[in-house]
Amino acid sequence: LPTWRPDEFMAVGTLEWNHAVEKLAEHTDENTSTLSGFLIALEKTHRYFRERGGVASDHGIEAPYGKPASTDEAAKIFQKAISGEKVAGEEERAFKAFLLHFFAELNTEAHWVMQLHIGAVRDYRDFLLRSLGKDSGGDVASHAIEISKGLYHFLNAFDGRLKIVLY
Least crowded by CB within 10 Å, which of 30, 98, 117, 145? Predict the structure, then answer.
């Protein structure tokens, strides 16, 4: 079954992220220059997978992010990133946590399973990346991370509402 994988939209503040946001606008006919337009466009891609039989999302995260930004904070971080400014540290983690919660809300509404690949370091094998493209299975896991503190807000926000698989 098709699985929704919005990992590229988690790399906030990178050149690749800005390109992905531009492509998202083209594919969805949404203005992604604001956080609200960006979220509407992401929701459209989620709906696209749901309409084609999708029942799960898959998210590679190197380490759990902790407490999410509020919508107002996320909007400020988004504007900073979309303007080409560097987003790092606590801002980056808070924005990624905000997005992960947004994705979980979409999954909750759709009755989907949400898979979190914790410690995933994507595209580790150059040969697979060059020959097959991004996220083609050349991944490794980092186990030198603190998991429980970063998952606290997420798991408690969706406890009893969402089926979550942790890898």
Answer: 145
State the Cα–Cα distance between residues 150 and 48, nearest whole angstrom. Answer: 30
Alpha carbons 17 and 134: distance in angstroms, whole number: 14
CB contact at 8 A, 95 and 69: yes
Question: d(Cα 75, Cα 44) in Å, to the nearest integer?
Answer: 19
Checking DSSP bridges between strand 120-121 and strand 140-141, what pairing results, if any?
Answer: antiparallel
Q: Where are the alpha helices (DSSP H) in 34-164?
A: 35-51, 71-82, 89-110, 126-132, 148-158
If we measure between CA atoms, which residue out of 4, 3, 1, 10 comes closest to residue 122? 10
Low-confidence ranges of the chain (pLDDT < 50): none
pLDDT tens digits, 22-48: 999 999 999 999 999 999 999 999 999
Distances (CA, A) of 143 to 140, 146, 147: 10, 9, 9
pTM confidence score: 0.90
C-alpha 27: how far from chain center: 18
